[in-house]
Write a structure and sequence with these properties.
By secondary structure, the protein is of the alpha/beta class. It contains eight helices and 13 strands. The protein folds into three domains: about 60 residues, Beta Barrel (OB fold (Dihydrolipoamide Acetyltransferase, E2P)); about 140 residues, Rossmann fold (3-Layer(aba) Sandwich); about 60 residues, Orthogonal Bundle (Ribonucleotide Reductase Protein R1, domain 1). The structure holds guanosine-5'-diphosphate, magnesium ion and zinc ion (ZN).
Length: about 290
């Protein structure tokens, strides 16, 4: 048997990348019986049926490290969350929402601020400090002026990553810089139209020149917090976890409780006030969602 990874799945066929090339495989019936659906990203064993035409059978799926449902993809190592510092101006509450969704899925988060050629250093620090204070790795780049593209490549090496972020922030420009074979359309509506036509298209993994793979998907296809509980949200604001001396202990949701360690840390500037406000905003959103049903 040959070891490989599913990089694409279309109409019951799985495309498995192995050291001997890519094989087109059907899955054994046993998977259907056991109700396991092979996912793009799965590490698998295949048996080869026809070497000449590169056909095989998917025999075994190895345990998954992570599993995203939307988009359906497994074993992602990290998510690179991309926002521009200007044009468009970053919506930080949206950025915090991307972070929360990633933390819930147990993905490593790296934040990339793009278009740094458009603002001065003080403005840039003000934005990026919020997230370094929270404990995140932040990379500030310009595709236009070739700033810190190597640092992004460093994050990709040997990893499977997904890029997430709103449109217009420079994701395609960045991917083109990372790997010249991409040749993605930049700044045009045509890419969006193309995407619209392929809304049911499956996730796919693309190999990078620098090693590693990137998932060809718009990141999260849903940004809703419908699946969240009020008392779990605090887990996904990772900087809160350092402050655990609240009077109400682990039951404290750091909102209106007295003697709250997290609220004190906000007052002392040890936790960003912006991040705390985002937290309260998302908390209320989760509550309102629950009331609707
Ligand atoms: N000034 C500046 N503009 C950029 C940079 N990167 C991308 N852009 C512009 O931002 C717009 C959107 O870029 P694109 O890569 O298509 O964004 P995407 O929608 O996230 O894929 C285009 O007009 C790009 O030329 C950058 O580093 N600096
Ligand atoms: Mg794009
Ligand atoms: Zn508290």
């Amino acid at each position: 048997m040959v070891y490989g990874k599913i990089i694409k799945g279309i109409g019951g066929f799985y495309y498995i990348d192995t050291e001997r090339g890519i094989y087109e495989c059907r899955a054994r019936g046993i998977f259907r019986k056991e109700k396991t659906t092979p996912l793009v990203g799965d590490n698998v064993l295949i048996s080869i049926v026809d070497e000449e035409n590169k056909k095989g059978v998917l025999e075994e799926i190895k345990d998954r490290k992570t599993e995203l449902i939307r988009p359906p993809i497994s074993n992602i190592d990290k998510v690179l969350i991309v926002f521009s510092v200007k044009d468009p101006y970053p919506n930080l509450s949206l950025l915090d929402r991307f972070i929360v969704l990633s933390e819930k899925e147990n993905l490593e988060v790296v934040i990339i601020f793009t278009k740094v050629d458009l603002i001065d250093e003080d403005e840039l620090n003000e934005i990026s400090n919020i997230y370094t204070l929270s404990g995140y790795k932040v990379i500030c780049i310009s595709s236009k002026n070739n700033i810190n593209i190597d640092k992004v490549k460093e994050e990709l090496k040997g990893n499977i990553v997904v890029f997430a972020g709103p449109s217009g922030v420079g994701k395609s420009s960045l991917l083109n810089k990372i790997d010249s074979s991409f040749n993605l359309q930049v700044g045009s509506v045509s890419e969006k139209i193309k995407r619209g036509k392929h809304t049911t298209r499956h996730a796919e993994l693309l190999k990078l020149e620098c090693g590693g793979m990137v998932a060809d998907t718009p990141g999260f296809s849903s940004l809703s917090l419908d699946d969240f509980e009020v008392d779990e949200l605090k887990e996904y604001f990772i900087e809160f976890n350092k402050f655990d001396n609240c009077k109400f202990g682990f039951r404290c949701i750091h909102e209106n409780e007295p003697n709250c360690d997290v609220k004190n840390a906000v007052k002392e500037g040890k936790i960003s006030e912006k991040r705390y406000k985002s937290y309260i905003q998302l908390l209320n959103e989760i509550r309102n969602n629950k009331r609707r049903y």
